[in-house]
């Protein structure tokens, strides 16, 4: 297909038709402070060799931290991704974020996505999963919007122990959708306050909790289910670290109506925090309410199995403004990577990986809390993250750790001032005993 | 194409059969043939209050989705549960077994603004 750019005349005609003067007027909705009011600060053109030299020098200034020296989790986790994942992703057919419309030329991609859906459903213990969303946070936002579609009440209750960044994304998604959010606290106990949740849930469409929650503890999902039953609300369970499902009972088994997760831990990387991968799963009876794409398996005229996009009539290219969502692509490449990773792990491998995470985090918790002035914030079970009270501000400690070549934990005092100086430390299968001992050594300078 | 005399019609291709203060509502033969194979009918809950023009459900075919608009003001008193398992009934029997909802009218005079068969036939011809 030839690309013929617009002429200045075309552009003027188009702007006149929709009644604006300049292209800039199309961006009037973006707040002025978010716009750049000067040219980008980038140098002019360079010959290829000089350009390569420049980038080499820039790269040299980086301080790369390998996974075993980083103890930061809080939504993005360092894991070992088998090299086979990348090798298989090199197949050019997978290089697209788009879900293919034409089954006759896309059986391989459709099948890969179908496998991803199957893994997602199994992992979260739900009937069906979609072909993926952008990330865990936007999956949660879509879950909240879906709950309103199902229950038709315009209030949603969210635990304050859901990742603060995810909560912000939800707020952004629903700001013009007539959905009010009630937040329920629980940070002092480490788990969502069920009594407060019960009061708030009355008259709401959905109750949202994170599992494990943002401070690393495990909310009582059976109690949350009872709250939802009493209130007639949907139970939405969000998971930022689905590796935990290797040892924990799935949200579906504990009664979740919608389960969403950030799938980056499977086959993803932590390059500048992304890309993410949204997992979205629910019950069969709401198949028509789910956002985004869905790949189904069927038989062709000769009785051979085949894969197609299904229930597309919910989507915006057919249903316009009444579509279930305005998502129009997905994270096909990341979804494929996660399906490959999960297939390599298998059921036992996932369990083993999860156990290694737990063991490492348990060792870390014991080691750090044995330092004077360091203390576990909660006496509760945790998976691979643990909240620890620290004897100095997190910023000070993290600066020192950075000097020693570590990435420290997440500063909880910013999100939860009532916790005081405290940090969320994460350990995964990447961390050996000596890595954690080295961290404890570096922290021992802060002992009181 | 079949358009029974005893029914009233809307520009959204719905028909209604008036029985006292109850209006039975479905989609016309023309509508079902335009939609093609119907695979799902979403019906409202009994007790839902409707104004003229309110969207009360959805008919989904293999190629598109169409909203259902209430021809009258009133309350939904019954929905055709059989359509859950056999939505294709709307194709095979649009005016009988394929009915969709029954509405208890709050103002029977509203039926005067609906189309008779002759008006509807001329609409379909366009």
Spell out the key features of this protein.
heterodimer, A: 448 residues, alpha/beta, Aspartate Aminotransferase, domain 1, Aspartate Aminotransferase, domain 2, 7-stranded mixed β-sheet, 4-stranded antiparallel β-sheet, 13 helices, 13 strands, 37% helix, 13% strand, B: 126 residues, alpha+beta, OB fold (Dihydrolipoamide Acetyltransferase, E2P), 6-stranded antiparallel β-sheet, 3-stranded antiparallel β-sheet, 4 helices, 35% strand
- Strand order in the largest sheet of chain B: 1-2-3-9-8-5
CATH top level of the largest domain in chain A?
Answer: Alpha Beta
CATH domain fold name of chain B? OB fold (Dihydrolipoamide Acetyltransferase, E2P)
Q: State the CATH architecture of chain B.
A: Beta Barrel
Low-confidence stretches of chain A: none
Radius of gyration of chain A over alpha carbons? 24 Å
Number of helices of chain A: 13
- pLDDT averaged over residues of chain B: 94
What's the total number of strands of chain B? 9
Radius of gyration of chain B: 13 Å
As an assembly, this protein is: heterodimer
Give, in order, the helices and strands of chain A. Answer: HHHHEHEHEHEHEEEEEHHEEHEHEH
Shape of chain A: globular
What share of residues are in beta strands of chain B? Answer: 25-35%
Describe the structure.
The complex is a heterodimer of chains A (448) and B (126). Chain A is an alpha/beta fold and 448 residues long. Chain A folds into two domains: 67-79 and 351-444, Aspartate Aminotransferase, domain 1 (Alpha-Beta Complex), CATH 3.90.1150; 83-341, Aspartate Aminotransferase, domain 2. Helix content of chain A is 37%, strand content 13%. Chain A has 13 helices and 13 strands. Chain A has helices at residues 8-18, 48-61, 83-89, 107-124, 136-151, 164-174, 194-201, 221-231, 316-319, 332-369, 394-403, 412-415, 433-444, and strands spanning 128-129, 155-159, 180-184, 206-210, 234-239, 258-262, 278-282, 295-299, 305-309, 375-376, 385-389, 410-411, 422-426. In chain A, the strands form three sheets. In chain A, strands 1-7-6-5-4-2-3 form a seven-stranded mixed β-sheet, with helices on both faces. The longest helix of chain A is centred in the last third of the chain and has 38 residues, at 332-369. Chain A is globular. Chain A starts with 7 loop residues before the first helix and ends with a helix. Chain B has one domain (8-105): Beta Barrel (OB fold (Dihydrolipoamide Acetyltransferase, E2P)), CATH 2.40.50. Helix content of chain B is 19%, strand content 35%. Chain B contains four helices and nine strands. In chain B, the strands form two sheets. Chain B has a six-stranded antiparallel β-sheet. Chain B has a three-stranded antiparallel β-sheet with strand order 4-6-7. In chain B, a hairpin with a 2-residue loop joins strand 2 and strand 3. The longest helix of chain B is centred in the C-terminal third of the chain and has 9 residues, at 117-125. Chain B starts with 7 loop residues before the first strand and ends with a helix. The A-B interface holds A 288, 313-314, 318-319, 322 and B 40, 42, 60-61, 63-65, 67.
């Amino acid at each position: 297909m030839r690309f013929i750019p617009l002429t200045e005349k075309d552009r003027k005609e188009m702007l006149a038709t929709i009644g604006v003067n300049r292209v800039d007027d199309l961006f009037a909705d973006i707040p002025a402070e978010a716009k750049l009011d000067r040219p980008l600060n980038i140098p002019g053109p360079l010959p290829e060799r000089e350009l390569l030299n420049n980038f080499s020098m820039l790269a040299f200034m980086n301080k790369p931290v390998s996974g075993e020296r980083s103890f930061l989790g809080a939504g993005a986790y360092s894991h070992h991704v088998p090299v086979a994942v990348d090798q298989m992703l090199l197949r050019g057919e997978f290089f697209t974020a788009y879900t293919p419309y034409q089954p006759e030329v896309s059986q391989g991609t459709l099948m890969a996505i179908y496998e991803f859906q199957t893994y997602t459903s199994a992992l979260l213990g739900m009937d069906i999963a979609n072909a993926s969303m952008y990330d865990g946070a936007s999956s949660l936002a879509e879950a909240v919007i879906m709950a309103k579609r199902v229950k038709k009440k315009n209030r949603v209750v969210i635990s304050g122990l859901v990742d603060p960044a995810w909560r912000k994304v939800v707020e952004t998604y629903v700001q013009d959708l007539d959905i009010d959010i009630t937040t329920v606290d629980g940070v002092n106990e480490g788990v969502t306050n069920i009594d407060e949740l019960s009061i708030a849930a009355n008259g709401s469409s959905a109750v949202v909790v994170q599992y494990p929650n943002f401070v690393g503890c495990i909310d009582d999902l059976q109690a949350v289910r009872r709250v939802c039953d009493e209130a007639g609300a949907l139970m939405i369970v969000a998971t930022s670290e689905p590796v935990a499902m290797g040892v924990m009972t799935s949200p579906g088994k504990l009664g979740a109506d919608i389960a969403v997760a950030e799938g980056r831990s499977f086959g993803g990387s932590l390059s500048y925090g992304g890309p993410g991968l949204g997992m979205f799963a629910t019950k069969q009876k709401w198949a028509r309410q789910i956002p985004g794409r869905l790949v189904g398996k069927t038989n062709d005229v000769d009785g051979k199995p085949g894969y197609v996009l299904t229930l597309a009539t919910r989507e915006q290219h057919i249903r316009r403004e009444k579509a279930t969502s305005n998502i129009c692509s997905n994270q096909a490449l990341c979804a494929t990577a996660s399906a490959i990773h999960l297939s390599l792990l298998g059921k036992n491998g996932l369990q083993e990986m999860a156990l290694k995470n737990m063991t490492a985090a348990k060792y870390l918790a014991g080691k750090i809390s044995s330092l004077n002035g360091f203390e576990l914030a909660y006496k509760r079970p945790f998976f691979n993250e643990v909240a620890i009270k620290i004897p100095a501000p997190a910023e000070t400690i993290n600066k020192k750790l950075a000097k020693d070549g570590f990435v420290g934990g997440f500063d909880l005092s910013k999100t939860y001032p009532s916790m005081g100086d405290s940090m969320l430390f994460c350990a995964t299968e990447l961390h050996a005993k000596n890595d954690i001992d080295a961290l404890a050594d570096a922290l021992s300078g802060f002992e009181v | 194409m079949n358009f029974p005399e005893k029914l009233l019609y809307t520009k959204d291709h719905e028909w209604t059969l008036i029985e006292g203060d109850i209006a039975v509502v479905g989609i016309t033969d023309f509508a079902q043939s335009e939609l093609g194979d119907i695979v799902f009918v979403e019906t409202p809950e009994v007790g839902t209050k409707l104004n003229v023009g309110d969207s009360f459900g959805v008919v989904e075919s293999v190629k598109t989705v169409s909203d259902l608009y209430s021809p009258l003001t009133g309350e939904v008193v019954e929905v055709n549960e059989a359509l859950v398992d056999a939505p294709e009934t709307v194709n095979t029997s649009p005016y009988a077994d394929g009915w969709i909802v029954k509405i208890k009218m709050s103002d029977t005079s509203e039926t005067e603004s609906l189309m008779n068969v002759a008006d509807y036939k001329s609409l379909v011809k366009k």
